[in-house]
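Explain this record to help learners:
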Amino acid sequence: MRRWLAAGAVFVLLSPGAAVAKSPNLIGAWGGPHAGIAFQGGLADVQFDCASGTIDVPVYPAKDGAFTARGTFRAGKPGPVRVGQIFRSEPASYAGHVAKNVMTITITLDDGTAVGPYTLTQGAAPQLTRCL
């Protein structure tokens, strides 16, 4: 009888309907005015009005919601992208805070230049105005 109870408990815990644990790292799409971040597989693609970037490590917010992560930043230029045109990626630090479904993030380039802050909402689409 005990074996059946133990086997039943294991089945319930491993079944697809069992409680799903919240991911400790940031996932999904976050968007807001002038910026958007898409986290997938622990990494992220970052879009701005006239720039883009990447977050190259999984982002694990601390208990207070603060986080930092390393990545890249690529400033864009107005006008069409020409064949063979190369945009220079710069190392950057992404730092921010998450509270419930709202993220505030600032990007700091290695030369000390700060970009942001931006306020993003989980599940919202980015509101971008591409550089012209």
